[in-house]
Amino acid sequence: MRVLVLGSTGASGRRIVERALADGHHVTAFARDVGRVAMEHPLLARAAGDVTVASTLAAAVPGHDAVVWAVGGHDRLRDPLRQSRHAGVCAVGTANLLAVMAGTSARRLICQSSWGVGDGRTRAPILYRRLVFPLLLADELADKAEQERLIRASDLQWTIVRPARLTDTPGTGRYRAAPQLRFSSRAHVARADVAELIVREIERPRFARQTVEMSA
To answer: What domains does the chain contain, in order, with CATH numbers?
Structure first.
């Protein structure tokens, strides 16, 4: 299949690109700075763009069978001054993406979201519900919640993936994935395992028009 990966230079996006290429898919890595797409592969193409600029998406989406959203929102813990991304990038970018996809043959959208978004918050540990989410991640989770709302309202074949705390450890292929999970304070999942699930959803949809939560 022909897969467009948005946010391809991020920690998660790189692993999704690598996994899709390893499975034999034609992949277009979409990034603001394509010079940061360091890998080389005969099935890999590059597209420069910004999800907040609709015209760049309109140039990149046509010709693809599936689109994967791996763009991270603003991370206040790593960037307290908001220097890397403006607020609302997920909601604004997704609105642009949905408008573009509506005019193309690309119907499959897989979005990497986050645990603690929407109803998932009720299944997080009390420390996260009472302190981490409202005090440190309120804006980011609100942005993701609006993103998820927009996706659910679309007529695409979408899947929203909500992983627990992401790690850079090697993938194991052993993880829990279900529409609803109970998360412990130690909940985590390897980015490589999230990439595996996302690429499998492109190949053989199991959670079409559903939200799937993930944890090791």
So the answer is: 2-215 (3.40.50.720)
